[in-house]
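Incident review: delayed structure delivery

Summary: a single-chain prediction request sat in the queue longer than the usual turnaround. Root cause was a stuck worker, restarted by the on-call engineer. No data loss occurred. The affected request and its eventual output are reproduced below so the record is complete for anyone auditing the incident later.

Affected input:
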Amino acid sequence: MRVNIVQKARKSPGNCEKCATVLAVGAPYRWWQAYRGTRHTVCMKPSCTPTAADLTGSEKVARLYEAREAARLAVGDCDDTSSIGAERSR
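Output delivered after worker restart:
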């Protein structure tokens, strides 16, 4: 799915779905829409960037993407290979 970026809003698209910031006239924002789906709108903050799980239409695939991202973050927090084993044993 493609994420569209609007550089300058002609009218207010509403609120950001992730942080609830009001998107004002003239502000940039991102939006995407699945085939026959609802339109999703988020602001340009890095924390509100859509993830792969947000962009898929399948609930099963979204759960796989979320698990992959959680594993990537868990491994990224470890300092060396011995701490990876310690994280797994918890």
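Verification: The longest strand covers residues 29-33.
Action items: add queue-age alerting; document worker restart procedure.
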